[in-house]
């Protein structure tokens, strides 16, 4: 009987190893891709305990964990040159979520650092297209004697609530400019909502801006939720000059 104990112990160890290597756990902030010989065979997006083939060597069965929450990618002190040669020192960020693990795996091998490298390149190009002195006639209701030329200094969209944790699902849109013309912010938000809801193409808001004329295509967002967060003033000695500059019929950068 005693001679069997080593055999039983070895057998028990093998069974425990097989069970341990067959189980993986996905928590509420994760999603998992199950790979077999490098090919996706399953995706788990709900938290729980799951099983796979017990062997991960030779790429037989492996599990790649991905985030399943809103992620924030910060870019600090970016020097951006806009049209006309003007430079801005910009602190920007992007809030994003991995909505399709299969596409994410195919595009960047499921690696966050590769995804954020691409985001950095696209954000740099987007900043140069948006920031600076531009004619926002497409996003402003016309008023006699008023200019629609504005210097847009910040426009960010981020999730203010994570559906996976608090159920809020809010979107926060921050807009900063030297001044705003009539309905400008609500029109910008309306255009962004149309893109987010899939009613128009991603490039359309920029195309409307370049067209320089108001159209019925831009829906003004409801006023509720619109909040003035602050007003910055120049030194007292520069107030008159600044007011004149803001009201002037300036020419936009092209």
CATH superfamily of the largest domain: Pseudouridine synthase I, catalytic domain, C-terminal subdomain
Look at the structure and give the mean pLDDT.
Answer: 77
At the first level of CATH, what is the class of the largest domain? Answer: Alpha Beta
What is the helix tally?
6
Give the SSE order as H and E letters: HEEEEEEEHHEEEHHH
Kindly list the characteristics that best describe this protein.
254 residues; alpha+beta; Alpha-Beta Plaits; three-stranded antiparallel beta sheet; 6 helices; 30% helix
Write the layout of secondary structure elements.
Elements: H1 5-22, E1 23-26, E2 30-36, E3 39-44, E4 48-51, E5 62-67, E6 71-81, E7 87-96, H2 101-108, H3 112-130, E8 132-135, E9 149-159, E10 171-177, H4 184-196, H5 204-211, H6 239-247
Antiparallel strand pairs: 1-4, 2-3, 2-5, 6-7, 8-9, 9-10
Q: What's a concise summary of this model?
A:
It is built from six helices and ten strands. The protein has helices at 5-22, 101-108, 112-130, 184-196, 204-211, 239-247; strands at residues 23-26, 30-36, 39-44, 48-51, 62-67, 71-81, 87-96, 132-135, 149-159, 171-177.
What features would you describe in this structure?
The protein is an alpha+beta fold and 254 residues long. Helices cover 30% and strands 28% of the residues. It folds into two domains: 2-67, no CATH class; 71-247, 2-Layer Sandwich (Alpha-Beta Plaits), CATH 3.30.70.660. The chain has helices spanning 5-22, 101-108, 112-130, 184-196, 204-211, 239-247; strands at 23-26, 30-36, 39-44, 48-51, 62-67, 71-81, 87-96, 132-135, 149-159, 171-177. It is elongated, with a radius of gyration of 27 Å.
């Amino acid at each position: 009987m005693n001679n069997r104990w080593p055999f039983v112990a070895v057998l028990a160890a093998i069974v425990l190893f097989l069970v341990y290597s067959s189980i993986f756990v996905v928590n509420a902030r994760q999603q998992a891709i199950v790979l077999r010989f490098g090919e996706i065979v399953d995706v788990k997006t709900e938290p729980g305990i799951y099983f796979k083939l017990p062997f991960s060597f030779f790429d037989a069965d492996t599990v790649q964990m991905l985030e399943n929450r809103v992620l924030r990618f910060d870019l600090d002190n970016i020097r951006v040159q806009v049209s006309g040669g003007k430079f801005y020192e910009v602190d920007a960020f992007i809030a994003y979520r991995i909505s399709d693990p299969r596409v994410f795996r195919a595009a960047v091998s499921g690696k966050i650092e590769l995804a954020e490298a691409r985001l950095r390149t696209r954000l740099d190009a987007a900043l140069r297209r948006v920031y600076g002195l531009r004619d926002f006639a497409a996003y402003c209701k016309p008023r006699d004697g008023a200019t629609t030329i504005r210097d847009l200094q910040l426009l960010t969209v981020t999730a203010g609530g994570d559906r996976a944790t608090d159920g809020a699902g809010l979107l926060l849109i921050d807009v900063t400019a030297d001044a705003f013309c009539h309905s400008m912010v609500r029109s910008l938000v309306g255009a962004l909502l149309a893109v987010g809801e899939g009613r128009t193409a991603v490039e359309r808001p920029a195309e409307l801006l370049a067209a320089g004329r108001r159209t019925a295509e831009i829906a003004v967002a409801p006023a509720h939720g619109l909040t003035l967060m602050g007003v910055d003033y120049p030194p007292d000695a520069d107030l008159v000059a600044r007011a004149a500059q803001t009201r002037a019929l300036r020419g936009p950068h092209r």
